[in-house]
Write a structure and sequence with these properties.
Blueprint lengths: L1 H9 L1 H26 L2 H23 L2 H8 L4 H36 L5 H16 L1 H12 L3 H26 L3 H21 L13 H34 L4 H18 L1 H19 L3 H28 L1 H9 L7 H30 L3 H25 L3 H27 L5 H11 L1 H5 L1
């Protein structure tokens, strides 16, 4: 019995899940503390700042991460140095470009007198500092994912998320600092993780001398599609926040309210992110070896099992939506409880659709068709932006924004299966049969 438990604890899906759950738990505590330390307007500005920062981080690292993981899987030590060093050099160049853009835009806004949401101003000034502080640990994530070293990934992430959470606890009970100080502390804790990864040679800084033009070209050629996919995927969620922030009717308070059910939805999606991280290298390996049957089998199993796991979670979340929203947001949002409960219940439908949508994209990347995955996500993104503009500026409704999320996800599922049927003759009905086989042979998978 003890031996079986050890096997289960070493299973990579569980390791990935535990890593993400640990980080997400502290992220949840931080979120709850922030809703109680900042009023609606200031919290809305924080959400806009951090959403923009996360989005641009995807732009920076999307160019190299997916392609780096693909190339790092199964390579020798020298090749790893070349890939990591090349990726670091690319990301350093991107940091320089983004810094010029952000600070240049900030200066233009100062002298032009244009009125915009303060969250956008905070981003333009403070993001270059945050981008520098998180460069090293973000670059190291490619190595951890390729090696399936989720324990190390968890420790590195906890080193900044955990420290930030600890600061917010002190801030709640003692310091009582404001929004600007909170942003600076966030930058500092990211720098601590970055310096650690740099000193351990996980980030690629000391391997820049091994960087090669050929590897750079290979990373960028694949990465330009995966970057577009990641950016578009991020826009599927973050465009809601960006567009709400542009509305004079909803503004920062609207962002703050919408962030509550959206955060709950992100928490429910954590297991999916974990499984996708383990599935991608496995499916890529099978595809590179020419074993398309094995690649499809992994896809069928993951989609079926995870959808099955999501069903009771979504059902419980739907029933207890009001209590979950109040627990996360606190008394500050009690007056908007019926509205936020309805938004979250719409999101539970979206959660049920996510596994199929996410894994069609992962499979397209695995069979070296990132361009098709990009097309799929671009169509979804444009549809979401149009729906958001209508919801915010015509209907002036946060519920309509959430309904748009369900509609574009359905569109993504349809497009994903269309491309996969055309490329590798995927059959949706096999999801059920392969999932049943996976459950029957669970002992084999764990042992």
């Amino acid at each position: 019995m003890l031996g079986k438990l050890k096997n289960i604890s070493r299973e990579k899906n569980l390791s990935s899940l535990m890593a993400n759950v640990s980080v997400a738990f502290m992220g949840l505590v931080s979120f709850m503390l922030l809703t109680r330390q900042l009023n609606k307007e200031l919290f809305g500005e924080w959400v806009l700042f951090i959403t923009l920062a996360t989005f641009v981080d995807l732009l920076r690292f999307g160019l190299t991460r997916t392609s780096s993981v693909r190339l790092l899987s199964g390579t020798d030590k020298l090749s790893q140095k070349t890939i990591l060093g090349t990726a670091f050099r690319i990301n350093l160049a991107l940091l320089g470009v983004l810094t010029l853009f952000c600070w240049g835009s900030h200066v233009i806004l100062l002298f032009s007198g244009i009125e915009i949401n303060n969250g956008y101003r905070l981003f333009l000034f403070y993001y270059p500092f945050l981008a520098l502080s998180n460069l090293s640990w973000n670059n190291a994530m490619s190595l951890f994912q390729a090696e399936q070293n989720f324990k190390r990934m968890m420790v590195v992430r906890i080193s900044n998320v955990g420290l930030f959470c600890l600061f917010l606890l002190l801030n709640q009970w003692w310091l009582q600092w404001g929004l600007i100080e909170i942003i600076w502390v966030n930058i500092a804790v990211n720098a601590i993780s970055g310096i650690w990864c740099m000193l351990k040679n996980w980030d690629g800084l000391f391997y820049v001398k091994f960087a090669r033009k050929k590897t750079e070209k290979e990373l960028v050629n694949f990465g330009k599609y995966s970057m577009g996919t990641l950016i578009s995927s991020s826009l599927l969620k973050s465009s809601d926040t960006f567009i709400i922030g542009m509305s004079p009717f909803l503004g920062s308070a609207g962002i703050a309210m919408y962030a509550i059910p959206l955060k709950l939805t992100d928490l429910l999606g954590i297991p999916l992110h974990s499984f996708a991280m383990t599935a991608y290298p496995r499916m890529s390996k099978k595809a590179i070896e020419g074993d398309l049957s094995g690649t499809k089998s992994i896809f069928y199993s993951y989609v079926g099992i995870i959808t099955l796991l999501f069903f009771p979670v979504a059902l419980v979340s739907f029933v207890f939506a009001e209590h979950l929203v109040l627990f996360l947001g606190g008394n500050e949002y009690k007056d908007a409880l019926p509205l936020l409960t309805l938004i979250f219940r719409v999101f539970t439908i979206y959660i049920m659709l996510l596994p199929v949508d996410r894994f069609t994209g992962v499979l397209l990347d695995s069979i070296n068709k990132p361009k098709l995955n990009l097309y799929k996500v671009l169509v979804m993104t444009f549809a979401n932006i149009i729906l958001n503009v209508l919801a915010v500026f015509v209907f002036k409704s946060l519920v309509a924004v959430a309904v748009g999320t369900v509609l574009f996800t359905l569109m993504g599922i349809f497009l994903g299966f269309h491309y996969l049927k055309k490329e590798i003759q995927i059959q949706s009905r096999q999801i059920v049969s392969e999932s049943v086989d996976f459950i029957k042979n669970l002992k084999t998978h764990l042992g």
